[in-house]
Amino acid sequence: MLTRSREDLREHAKKIKAIFFDIDDTLRLKDEEFMPESVKDVFRRLKEKGILTGIASGRAYHAIVPEVRELGADVYVTINGQYVITPSGEELYSNPIPSDVVERAIEWAKSENVELVFIGSSNVALTKWNEYGEAALPIVYGRGIIEYPKFHEKHRVYQMLTINENAESLVLPEELRQHVRLVKWHPYSNDIIPLGGSKANGIARVIESLGLTPDEIMAFGDEMNDIEMFNFVGIAVAMGNANWKVKPLADYVTKTVTDDGILDALETLGILDKTED
């Protein structure tokens, strides 16, 4: 589905020098743990054309599954733009949540009977496991997360996750809303992200260092935490399986993950030549 004319998008696509991809339900289906073979071919062909490839994910780097790392992206915008690194581990951008804000979030969570997950650059911990954490966390972070309520006293916290029975029911108090916001990613969990923090912010740091402009960037995504990224880049592509609230914000809505949506969009827009079946 097109929200801009095909001619306009194909003309704009000639300018694209870098493409960023969300992981879950964009490159691969999170629950099914399935990634189409076409994705590997896409990354190979983009590299051959000299187009930079980046991952833009809510996941921390240590939670990115091996098959995605093996795609060989040039840069990783992780933790919803809070921490940006190269495949060799070079830190390009770091924006932890201030410790006093973390402390206030902990007090609020206790008052609401909400458990918290602390996301660090290379590790993760939570205040306490419960049935809602068991349902939400393993598919992204596995079952090895330790209970460490004082994680924040020893480590920088780049993002927190709420864990409770109904993520949509939570409302931050005014004092916290001045510093962070909630972005739902699971029925039992929200991301807690700094105001101004987003995948778009992380991508902006990358392209600034490369001398590129947002107009030269394309991005693929499917969820609420992709909205700022969609508003920032020159061409935004939503997956066919994307959240219904996200699709109207995209320039192009492609097929689903299982129907090789990424390959289809890149061929339709002329960035990659069509391959014969």
Automatic annotation (TrEMBL):
Keywords: Hydrolase
Pfam families: Hydrolase_3
GO molecular function, a single term: magnesium ion binding
InterPro entries: Cof, HAD-like_sf, HAD-SF_hydro_IIB, HAD_sf
One GO cellular component term noted in the UniProt record for this chain: cytosol
Source superkingdom: Bacteria
Database matches in SUPFAM superfamilies: HAD-like
NCBIfam families in alphabetical order: Cof-subfamily (TIGR00099), HAD-SF-IIB (TIGR01484)
PANTHER family: PHOSPHATASE YKRA-RELATED, PHOSPHOSERINE PHOSPHATASE
Protein name: Cof subfamily of IIB subfamily of haloacid dehalogenase superfamily/HAD-superfamily hydrolase, subfamily IIB
Phylogenetic placement of the source organism: Bacteria, Bacillati, Bacillota, Bacilli, Lactobacillales
